[in-house]
Design goal:
The chain has helices at 28-32, 42-45, 54-84, 86-93, 145-149, 151-154; strands spanning 5-6, 17-18, 97-107, 111-125, 131-139, 161-172, 178-188, 193-206, 210-221, 225-239, 242-253, 258-272, 275-287, 291-307, 311-322, 330-341. The chain is an alpha+beta fold.
Length: 342
């Protein structure tokens, strides 16, 4: 048993007992230890921010700029296609519609060509998922490349129209770069003319500023055989609302064994949300045993939404130099109004 020692007090003091030498005392190591030793420390968790170097910043800027510019070019191109080819846009976004068009074309020499046409498309539920039954009255498949794409002709009624009925299916890849449309049906006439058609589009970015689009289609009609067309389109933004486009066009028909070709340079200017203008310069030709040029042209195409996305006006002044006129200039002005019911 331990004893407690008591020191001899000085005179006038009280004796204070002292603990034995082997009593429980805190070790000096324990007194100096960190009570938060087992807790995570800031120096172990904090990763200091390192300012990226010039090369890293430049690479990030280029990648970000490329994505922004590529997206802007694609959106601008789609918007201009939608605006200047109203019925094509309607086919994509509105399944059923009717369009009436009144046009007046003045040709140099005082010749006037007032015309009216209509076009309709009726989509009905398909018998299988993603198939649609389509009934359409539209421009005939016998139109030449120049008749379909030169601005003054495209703004007016086509020379011939036909009724088509068939099934349509739209396919696309996961990334959205490919779009394919497959259709089969009949051209309604006596006797009926069966057909099969496949149309595809492919998009790709070329560097930071350019976008490339490939449009290709092939169709077979029992009456006329195979018809194939391919368009190579390059475009880029040259201003906030300015889009430059270069289109190289090819069209081949088995019936005539003829290759038609065209080259168009276009500048699209979106003036406001309700109107835009496109400037075109181009050339058309064909190839039998040898190639020859048939038409040079320069034109402008002004289009305005007059009322709530269903009443439009087009104004197309054009100067053409056709071979049949000895490549002499022939001026024309086409004014048309389109009314959409959808």
């Amino acid at each position: 048993m331990s004893t407690v020692s008591v020191a001899e007090p000085e005179p006038g003091q009280v004796a204070i007992p002292h603990p034995p030498s082997n009593s429980f005392a805190l070790d000096s190591a324990e007194l100096n230890s960190d009570p938060f030793h087992d807790y995570p420390q800031l120096k172990d968790q904090y990763v200091p921010y390192v300012e990226p170097g010039y090369v890293d910043r430049s690479v990030r800027y280029l990648l970000s700029s490329r994505r922004s510019i590529s997206s802007a070019v694609s959106l601008m191109g789609e918007r201009m296609d939608a605006y200047f080819a109203g019925e094509q846009y309607v086919i994509e976004e509105n399944n059923t519609y009717l369009r009436l068009r009144l046009s007046q074309k003045w040709i140099e020499g005082g010749h006037l060509e007032p015309e009216m046409d209509y076009k309709f498309r009726l989509d009905l539920p398909g018998t299988k998922e993603r198939y649609r039954l389509v009934l359409a009255y539209q421009e005939d498949n016998e139109q030449s490349l120049e008749e379909r794409t030169i601005p003054s002709e495209a703004a007016g009624p086509p020379q011939e129209q036909s009724l088509f009925a068939g099934l349509l299916r739209t396919l696309g890849d996961v990334g959205g770069d490919w779009e394919t449309k497959l259709s089969a049906g009949i051209k309604v006439k006596l006797p009926p003319d069966p057909f099969v058609r496949a149309v595809g589009k492919r998009f790709a970015s070329l560097g930071e500023l350019w976008e490339f689009e490939l449009r290709s289609g092939v169709e077979w009609f029992n009456s006329s055989g195979v018809h194939a067309e391919t368009d190579f389109i390059f475009e880029r933004l040259v201003g906030e609302n300015l889009l430059f486009r270069s289109a190289t066009l090819f069209d081949w028909r088995d019936e005539d064994d003829t290759l038609e070709f065209g080259q168009k340079w276009s500048l699209y200017d979106e003036l406001s949300p309700r109107d835009a203008i496109a400037y075109h310069l181009g050339v058309y030709g064909n190839s039998y045993s040898h190639s020859r040029i048939n038409t040079y042209f320069i034109s402008a195409d002004y289009r305005r939404d007059l009322y709530k996305d269903w009443l439009y006006m087009n104004l197309v002044p054009e100067l053409a130099f056709p071979r049949k006129e000895g490549f002499s200039g022939v001026a024309s002005i086409t004014v048309s109004f389109e009314i959409f019911f959808r």
